[in-house]
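Hi W., the S-adenosylmethionine complex you wanted:
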Amino acid sequence: MVQKLARSITTNQHGVHEDTAFYVRRYQHTDFKKPVADHSREAFDSVAELVSAWRGEVILDSCCGVGESTAVIAGRNPNALVIGVDKSAHRLQRNLQHKTKAEGQTYYLLRADLNDFWRLAAEANWVLAKHFLLYPNPYPKQKHLQRRWHASPVFPSVVALGGHLTMRSNWFIYLQEMAVALRCYQRAASVAELAENEMPITPFERKYKEAGQALFELQADLTVEAN
Ligand SMILES: C[S@@+](CC[C@H](N)C(=O)[O-])C[C@H]1O[C@@H](n2cnc3c(N)ncnc32)[C@H](O)[C@@H]1O
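Structure:
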C-alpha cells in the first residue's frame, strides 16, 4: 500500500498576523464565560484530588492525540505526574499500547475540551512544571486567527498555568505568533528549527518528518516575567 505523505501548510498568510496582539490583549483582562462542558468537568474532577495532593512535578501534554507523546514524557520524567488531554475520544482510544504505562510509570489520558480544562486547572491554581502543546491544529487561513490558541479567549489560562512551555509545529508562523502573544504577557520565548535527528514522539511529527517537512519548536519559561 502506498502511504500518502503529509501535505505541507497551505496558507494565504505570510507572516505574523497583524491582529495577533490585538486579540491577545482583548482577552488578557476579560473572563471567558462560556459554560464548561460536563464531560470536561468530569475529566478534570477525575484527577483534581490527585493533583492537589501531589507534592512533585505536574506535567500537562495538551492536544496529546493518541497519547504517544504522553507516554514518552512520562518515561522521561519518572517522578512527575503526567496528564495528557485531548478532545477526541477516537484518538485517545487508538494505540492502546500507549495507554497504561511508560517504563513502569503511570500517566493519565483524559478526554476534555481544553477550552474548559485549562480554565478549570487555572481556577484550581494548578502550577505546571512543564506544559507540552505538540502540533496543535494550525488553522493557517488568515481569517482563522482566532481559532489559534494564542488568539483565543482561553489563552490567559495557558499563561496562568505556568511552567516551561514546549510547542511544536510544522508552521513556523504559528510559533512566531505564539511568541508575540507571550510577549504581551512579558514572557520571553525562543523559536528554532527542530534538529533533523530528533526522534519523533508523536504520530503527526512522524508523518511530517516522513514527508520531509521542516519542524519548529517554541520554548518559553512561563514562570519568569521578562523585562
Ligand atoms: C494535529 S493533532 C496533533 C495530535 C498530537 N499532538 C500529535 O502530534 O500527533 C491536534 C490535536 O488537537 C486536539 N484538539 C483540538 N482542539 C482541541 C480542544 N479544544 N481540546 C482538546 N483537544 C483538542 C485534536 O483532537 C487533535 O488530537
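The longest strand covers residues 81-86.

W.
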